[in-house]
Amino acid sequence: MDAAARAELDALRLRAYGPSPDIADDCRAVERLVELEELALPAARMPEPGILASAPASGLPPDGAVVDGPRDAAPSDARVVGVLPAGESPRRRRSRWHIALVAAVAIVALPLGVAAAARTSAQPAVSSAAAGAIPAGVREALAFVRHPQADKLIEVRIDGSFGDYVDLPIGDDVPVFPVEGLMTWVEPLGDYYGWKLWIAGARGAIENENCMLLDGDGTMRADCVSTALKTQGGLLLSVPYAELAPEDRPEVMTADQSLGFWWGPDGVVTILLSPTPPD
Fold it and tell me: Do 11 and 109 fall within a single domain?
């Protein structure tokens, strides 16, 4: 996607999800938004016929088959969002899951810290012993997300339907995640501020894992955590100000901030600005 298309997409996102949305009655603008959102998604190459025939030997069912048994690594808690045209076949719905995603991207102007304060004000104080029991990665992620100066930019609400399927695209477009076990599914969520966002699930050596990866034209940032830690809010990736191209930075971003991507317990990937944590 070139710079002009990126600017057009940002403008349409603002019209659709900003504080004063006005795109609902503009059919051409809605169609263009869907078109650009599809272009922002990395191309996923489909397997050649016969490749998946050997999938059962590797522990993976054929494409589209329902996975029996526990699926802890899949985002089963994420609700299905958006409304698809009546009469579409299941395969057609499957191929257009990201349009449902487009319908649910929300741009919010309120700081996360205000919402977090409202949620926690009515809760009893947490003892220092209990706080010490929280894993370090979870504490660091929540400190970034709940910082009083954090500003939420975008919420990417995930279509939970793909959690019931194995979806492992084949090709050079699919990045390599830092897992030791078997990948069970991979999904691209689009291009945000110059970074392609991916989420995935895997069978880890000890327990199932959820993963998130950012691809900035070859510069990768990725992390995988157990599903238990992800449920606690411990899956966060951040990009400092200096590592964002000037044309990709949010207009309100300052040099002391980082751009964060947080896959929260509610199945939503929140993109936000927050002060860069000290080293």
Answer: no
CB count within 10 Å of CB 8 equals 15
CA distance 160 to 65: 16
Span 210-232, mean pLDDT? 90
Q: How many separate domains does the chain show?
A: 2
Taking residues 259-278, report their average pLDDT: 92
- φ and ψ of 153, to 5 deg: -105, -50
- The residues near 267 (Cβ < 8 Å, ≥ 6 apart) are 75, 77, 78, 79, 157, 158, 160
Q: What are phi and psi of 272, to 5 degrees?
A: -150, 165
pTM for the model stands at 0.57
Q: State the Cα–Cα distance between residues 197 and 215, nearest whole angstrom.
A: 7
**Does the residue 47 lie in any domain?**
no
pLDDT at 12: 81
